[in-house]
Amino acid sequence: MPPRPFAWPEPYRMAVSLTFDDGRPTQLPILVPYLAAQQVKASFYILPRVVAANAEGWRKVLAAGHEIGNHSHTHPCSGSHRWSRNNALEDYTLERISMDIDQASDALENLLGERPQTYAYPCYGTFVGMGIDRKSYVPVVAERFLAGRSGLSDVANDPSFCDPHCLLSYELDDRSPESAVKLLESAYQDGRWVVFTSHEVAPEPVPGKERYSTTLATLDAVIQWCQSKPDVWIDTLANVARAL
Ligand SMILES: [Zn+2]
Questions:
Q1: Whole-angstrom Cα distance, residue 72 to residue 103?
Q2: Measured in angstroms, how far is the CA atom of residue 229 from the centroid of ligand 1?
Q3: How many H helices and E strands in the chain?
Q4: CA 119 to centroid of ligand 1, rounded, Å
Q5: What tens digit of pLDDT does each residue of 193-241 get?
Q6: Distance 21 CA to ligand 1 centre (A)
Q7: How many domains in the chain?
Q8: Domain, as residue range, for 236
Q9: What is the pTM of this model?
Q10: For residue 213, is it within any domain?
Q11: Distance 123 CA to ligand 1 centre (A)
Q12: Residue 64 belongs to a domain with what CATH number?
């Protein structure tokens, strides 16, 4: 497929979206006030039952200009994750994943008053089934959402070519500030869209969750780098996706 002609809206030459998954315990008390102080808008992908546990708190996050997107209803991942063995993507059909996603959109709309516009694939898994029955569920996401975020990438999204329903993302968890800035600098040269994924966010890695922790020092390095450049656009996944 040939690249589409593309230019970021003036005055920008690249975009950055920060995405935070699962509504982890550190997000409302630590991350949300931090983002408010930095005046940065981000995307949160949360299961309805987690939103329901503090609907008032998450409604305030939405009202502050952040995005709350769909992360499915039951968080199905590959059964290679032992904890997902009883809810494994390998055992899903396209019909079953569609129902799971629609149930989450309905529940989030009831809780928050707004239907989610983007989706984040739990554990970055974009397939259902196994072997000859294995199918991509990217089309299910494309039928329903403005954009979908996958992950575990070694390259940033090229806005002139990327699939908005299967966006690549870099993990910010367990990453040093220097490594994060290096990714941004290389994407800046090419005018790309960098999407970062985080889970817990705290001053120090959360004990026992180090692999899923982004430190405030790393997040700070990313935000300071973006805000030091007037041509870097930092915004929610939905807002940037609308520019594609
Ligand atoms: Zn998740």
A1: 8
A2: 31
A3: 8, 12
A4: 11
A5: 999 999 999 999 999 999 999 999 999 999 999 999 999 999 999 999 9
A6: 5
A7: 1
A8: 14-241
A9: 0.96
A10: yes
A11: 6
A12: 3.20.20.370
